[in-house]
Design brief:
The complex is a heterodimer of chains A (291) and B (411). Chain A has 291 residues and is an all-alpha fold. Chain A contains 13 helices and no strands. Chain B has two domains: 49-267, P-loop containing nucleotide triphosphate hydrolases (Rossmann fold, 3-Layer(aba) Sandwich), CATH 3.40.50.300; 276-392, CBS-domain. Classes of the chains: A mainly alpha (291), B alpha/beta (411).
């Protein structure tokens, strides 16, 4: 006797690809649209404007409230300089287009992952049963090696950016759900009770009390989602997703050390910039709370 | 607004509530029910009436079910059975929308740990209830500013609440509860998290505020002194049941059982126990137009006292006379009682609400007993020295006898 769960999954995926192809085509078109849309915006703008905008953002977020002071410069100045230098380096090395592709892939995956993950997190924070069901699924999604998602992704979404984004979403989704859930559950009980005692509806409770108080934690989740998305760019390139990941993958296939190093360096620079920017999203709201 | 009636209220926590309720009705106690059904009884068979405009205090130790009981009023906790009638309708039967209306308009709450929104300013916190009602911003901020002034926080309107001290935060909590102008305030250990000095302060201010706003206030506390100070009436809870309901004085002078007795033993009673509760009612008296010195002496002998109050035909108190005075008067012969009483000057009497602590100094230079009179000076009763002393040292007659038997100093 042998048990072959893999076979059942295979059968299931096959069934889906034959019977629900219209559905998956629609998803393909949708995700593809989001990716190209973002990519177009970033490539239409001149490179120096993109650099300036990102540098301004990485300065503004940590320095907000004290923009043109010494303190503000201390908080955000270094990161702004790093952003300018790092992105200019990428431009000078000739990886500008790939960098913009990668940013588009990451943003598309992260936005979709957050759009699914945050509502799911809210739902599981309100419903213990839902949390009990969702938690093991998230564990499964995170521990399953990310490469495995590529196989059904190819079958259902063919090759290109879209299966890459789909695999990235599956892999990057859990922290959005987890941290939203955690943030809302950690809102002090008496504050929630007070809100109810004054006659708030569930919706008012959520928007006026729970989400604002959970924001720091939720934004930590946003940071996690973006970083996990970034960590998928090379893996996603194996199914045809473009960008810097594609260059690294080429470097591997061709044993091209120079290419691999340059593209890898690009990913590192991008990682640092995105991490700091999104980290400071959360920091800011924490500062507001303390004030 | 009318009184609130609570009838046969039960709160049971756990999965097998119906079973537990049945067992409860059969008279099983908390521990047995927990054993048999795994359910905890939070509140058991509570019947009470909160009168409009009074401060009703529920006092009990932690785990006595007092906070659970309070949360039944606005249904933050849903009771298992019973009814709470306000304005002729049962709050426990209200649907979600009616319940929200009750919470928005009729009943607000003040919390032990304040429950303020840390990401908002004082005024925005105070305006929270109005915001939930959907009032537009200008209107609600206007009301909020006014309410902030009444709780004495003027000037702090645009501060973040996290920057305020505990006492000030609770003022914000109180202002938030008052801003919607509810009929009923539910206060859950509202001052328990504050420093003793600030707590006393807040209690004084609540009493002052209440004399202006005249809300019906349900106040929960574990502190008997606080209960006695604030409460017009007090309910004492133990193990989810109400042990006694009464005015502070009733609770102190007539504890329902040993539990309450043990509670009130160490309380400073002097300010709470009043002349009314230690006086002898309908005392023997001398009617000025009717009785002469001879009759007075006979009455004294009959009752076994050395002095008696003198009253007129309307039972108005005129003064005390002692046996030796009467004897001298009788000896003299022709002096009438009314003339004699007229010659006596100082006539001292107290009102029934006078606390014992204020009575005591009056006895220092008073050779007579003390008369208790109503507003029209009608004699209600007589307080004797020994009752006052007994009350102040918190011993009743039996205990005094016991102390004597155990051998005091005998001369």
């Amino acid at each position: 006797m042998s048990i072959e769960p893999g076979k059942y999954v295979e059968k299931g995926v096959e069934w889906l690809s034959t019977n629900a192809s219209g559905f998956f085509d629609a998803i393909t078109a949708g995700i593809g649209g989001v990716v190209t849309g973002i990519e177009t915006v970033f490539t239409i703008l001149p490179f120096w404007l993109v650099i300036l905008l990102l540098a301004a953002l990485s300065y503004y977020l940590p320095a907000r409230g004290q923009l043109f002071t010494k303190k503000g410069w201390k908080a955000g100045g270094g990161m702004a300089i790093f952003t300018v230098v790092g992105l200019f380096l990428l431009y000078a090395m000739g990886y500008w287009e790939q960098t913009m592709q990668t940013i588009a892939l990451i943003l598309a995956s992260a936005i979709i992952a957050l759009a699914i993950g945050i509502p799911l997190g809210i739902y599981s924070a309100r419903n213990d049963r839902a949390e009990q069901i969702i938690r093991p699924i998230l564990d499964f999604m995170q521990t399953m090696p990310a490469f495995v998602y590529l196989i059904p992704a190819i079958i259902l979404f063919s090759v290109g950016d879209v299966p890459g984004v789909v695999a990235t979403i599956v892999f990057a989704l859990p922290p959005a759900v987890r941290l939203t859930n955690l943030g809302i559950r950690n809102v002090p009980k008496d504050v929630v009770e007070a809100s109810r005692a004054f006659g708030s509806t569930k919706r008012q409770l959520l928007y006026k009390v729970q989400l604002p108080l959970a924001m720091t934690t939720i934004l930590a989740g946003v940071n996690q989602v973006i970083m996990l998305s970034l960590s998928m760019v090379v893996i996603a390139s194996m199914v045809g997703a473009g960008g810097l990941g594609q260059e690294v993958y080429k470097g591997i296939l061709q044993a091209d050390i120079a290419l691999g190093f340059e593209a890898g360096l690009g990913i590192v620079i991008l990682a640092i910039i995105l991490d700091r920017i999104t980290q400071n999203l959360g920091m800011g709201s924490k500062m507001n709370q303390e004030n | 607004m009318s009184d609130i009636q609570v009838k046969k209220l039960n709160v049971i926590f756990g999965k097998r509530k119906k079973e537990a309720l049945k067992l409860l009705e059969q008279g099983l106690d908390k521990a047995e029910i927990l054993n048999k059904t795994g359910c905890t009884v939070g509140v058991y068979d509570v019947n009470l009436e909160v009168k409009q405009g009074e401060i009703f205090v529920v006092m009990g130790l932690s785990g006595s079910g007092k906070s659970t009981l309070l949360r039944c009023f606005n249904r933050l906790i849903s009771p298992t059975s019973g009814s709470i009638i306000m304005n002729g309708t049962d709050i426990l039967k209200a649907n979600d929308q009616e319940l929200r209306q009750i919470r928005r308009k009729n009943m607000t709450m003040v919390f032990q740990h304040f429950g303020l929104l840390p990401h908002r300013t004082v005024s925005s916190n105070v305006a929270f209830g109005l915001e939930i009602q959907g009032l537009d911003e200008q209107e609600r901020i206007k009301i909020a500013y006014k309410t902030i002034e009444t709780v004495g926080l003027k000037g702090y309107e645009e501060q973040m609440t996290g920057q305020l001290s505990g006492g000030m935060q609770q003022r914000v909590g109180l202002a938030r509860a008052l801003a919607t102008d509810p009929d009923v305030l539910l206060m859950d250990e509202a001052f328990s998290a504050l420093d003793p000095l600030i707590r006393t302060n807040m209690q004084d201010e609540l009493i002052q505020l209440q004399s202006k706003v005249k809300k019906t206030i349900l106040f929960i506390t574990h502190d008997l002194d606080e209960a006695l100070k604030l409460g017009d009436r007090i309910a004492i809870m133990k193990d989810g049941k109400i042990v006694q309901i009464g005015t502070p004085e009733e609770i102190l002078t007539n504890p329902a059982d040993d539990y309450v007795k043990a509670f009130v033993e160490n309380v400073d009673r002097g300010d709470i126990v009043t002349a009314r509760s230690i006086m002898f009612e309908n005392p023997a008296s001398i009617r000025i137009d009717h009785d002469g010195p001879k009759v007075a002496l006979r009455k004294m002998r009959k009752v076994g006292v050395t002095s008696l109050p003198v009253v007129d035909n309307d039972n108005r108190f005129l003064g005390f006379v002692k046996d030796e005075e009467m004897a001298a008067l009788e000896h003299k012969g022709d002096v009438k009682m009314s003339e004699y009483m007229h010659a006596k000057k100082e006539v001292m009497a107290v009102e029934p609400e006078t606390p014992v602590a204020e009575l005591l100094p009056l006895f220092l230079d008073n050779i007579y007993n003390m008369a208790v009179v109503d507003k029209d000076k009608r004699l209600l009763g007589v307080v004797v020295h020994s009752s006052v002393i007994g009350e102040m040292i918190r011993k009743d007659q039996q205990e005094v006898v016991k102390i004597k038997e155990e051998g005091g100093l005998v001369l």
